[in-house]
Design brief:
The protein is mainly alpha-helical. It is built from 13 helices and four strands. Helices cover 37% and strands 4% of the residues. The chain is globular, with a radius of gyration of 25 Å.
């Protein structure tokens, strides 16, 4: 019984046992994981600005509402092309001795998952406006506005990045809203969040509990994906559910001469390659190319936009769109 009566022996025995367990249960497995899990081929390292933006992402509490983990359930399909695998997180490094980046996976989904936000919403203008005033682009948003990342100016100077803010959300309609360096760094990090394509021949994990895919029938009886669903996933953030866009930021599709016009090539080109001819509006990114739209998807979106919000445009077929997509490659 001497062992139980000797407090020094008890203390050192408990300490050594604790250190033994820590070494074998936490430290050695972590070292092994770092050696085994390597980044996927083609993974791009974060730029200097993106690294600074990552620190801002953590510091401003974005991890409290947003996850970076596409789960293997069909409802997460809108957030990424495949469920996440361990190799997706192989580039994560400790920010300092006290902070790990494992918490970037998040635990709450108050806001949408951001795993692939750089592909899903590649518009710098949209990201900046969303940071300045989330309700300018999503009326129902509960996200706080990060207006301290911006400044008001009387005039735009060389090198300034102006944010196209609708007049109703301006405190002073005679002022210009300019993004600070911190806002640009945070957006650089968000745009860097893209799922890396798996190596050729690698079968991605399947999404489980699959929902029934909806089809629509276009002119000529051709089956197309659900254009309304595609619009909600890829277009509604800027052009809004009512098709009226945001004045001073994103143009309306309701009554748009492009949507209702006869120049289908221009229409398809805008969807696939973006658009920047109108200084009063933000630049449209190459949404179609970034999201790997097929001719069927583009045709479905066009038909949805031409038949919604009072629009009465001529429906198109996937074959017509495919011909144009082949021309503009």
């Amino acid at each position: 019984m001497e062992f139980y009566n000797n407090h020094r022996l008890l203390f050192w025995s408990a300490l050594l046992f604790f250190l033994f367990l820590t070494l074998n249960i936490a430290i050695l497995p972590a070292i092994q994981n770092q050696q085994v899990y390597k980044p996927l081929p083609g993974t791009k390292p974060l730029s200097k600005d993106a690294k600074a933006g990552k620190a801002l992402y953590v510091a401003n509490g974005c991890i409290a509402c947003h996850t970076q983990q596409v789960r293997s359930v069909d409802m997460d399909k809108v957030f990424g092309s495949r469920p996440n695998i361990p190799a997706d997180y192989a580039t994560n490094q400790r920010m300092d001795v006290w902070r790990n980046t494992a918490n970037l996976l998040g635990s709450e989904r108050t806001g949408p998952d951001l795993t692939n936000i750089g592909e899903r919403q590649p518009s710098i203008d949209w990201q900046l406006l969303h940071l300045y005033q989330p309700r300018a682009v999503v009326a129902e948003s509960v996200m706080p506005a990060y207006q301290w990342l911006f400044e008001e100016k009387d005039y735009i100077q060389k090198g300034d990045v102006e944010v196209k803010v609708p007049e109703k959300f301006l405190k002073n309609r005679f002022k210009k809203i300019v993004a600070k360096k911190e806002a640009l760094q945070l957006v650089a990090y968000l745009l860097s969040l893209k799922q890396t394509k798996l190596p050729d021949g690698t079968t991605p994990p399947e999404f489980l509990y699959k929902q029934k895919e909806q089809k629509t029938t276009a002119a000529g009886g051709t089956n197309l994906p659900d254009g309304g669903e595609l619009y909600s996933t890829n277009c509604v953030a800027c052009h809004q559910a009512n098709g009226e866009g945001l004045p001073g930021a994103f143009p309306p599709l309701k009554g748009s001469p492009v949507v209702l016009g006869e120049d289908l090539k221009l229409y398809v080109t805008i969807i696939m390659k973006g658009y920047n001819p109108r200084p009063e509006y933000a630049v449209m990114p190459n949404v179609g190319t970034a999201a790997n739209f097929t001719p069927e998807m583009v045709a479905a979106i066009i038909n949805h936009e031409r038949s919604s919000w009072g629009n009465t445009g001529k429906p198109v077929t996937a074959d017509e769109v495919k011909k144009i997509m082949d021309e503009i490659k």
